[in-house]
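I am still getting used to backbone structure tokens and would like to learn alongside you. Please make up or recall a protein chain and show it to me in full. Would you write everything just below, so we can both look at the same thing?
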Amino acid sequence: MPELASRLHQLQCRISGATAPAAGRSRLLAVSKTRGIEEIAALAALGQLAFGENYVQEALPKIAACAADPGLPGLEWHLIGRLQSNKAREAAHAFDWVQTVDRAKLADALSRHRDPARPALNVLIQVNVDGEPGKGGCEPHEVPALATHVAALPRLALRGLMAIPAPVPDPSTRRAAFRSLAALQTRLAATHPGLDTLSMGMSDDFELALAEGATLVRIGTALFGPRPPKPKQAATTTESA
């Protein structure tokens, strides 16, 4: 897949060039929702080992298939979609990271269901930086208490914060949201010094996020290309005799 290899190389160069000096080395998370094993394997062969999935049920067969393939060792799976508590058991078993923890009840469930024989589940707290109604993420003022709660739970490792700013056309507004999240993480690090991950920025704004201190950017379309259209469902008709 030469086009995939070319896009990966271009993104790696852009990420390296845009990363803020204080952030150190930033990573690319390949958002693989709707993508097949063949594309994941092609990226893994190029050294891209971290993948993000939005839906637990879609991700489970991919994760299982990759784990069973001896040619795909060491893949790192991140859940980046909103997680309901009734899916926490499956998520805790299958993923290496959950980036969308936004309430104590969910953190409790992930901790309870994580196999103690496995490494701790890496956790990011999702923050609703813009206060969008109905959007996942806790409010900024709720983060310190939630961070303290998560950090005290067994089998979880609090690594940092994640946000998805509102998709507004003004780049300065998005950049301000990224700056706000970075400032929140800096304040939080005073009491949680192990925080090392700031997940923000996607295909259309990751360079803005990197300039404000992102250490992990979530890239789908810019890496894989446009998503294939959803198959149309056949219309059903009812005939009377």
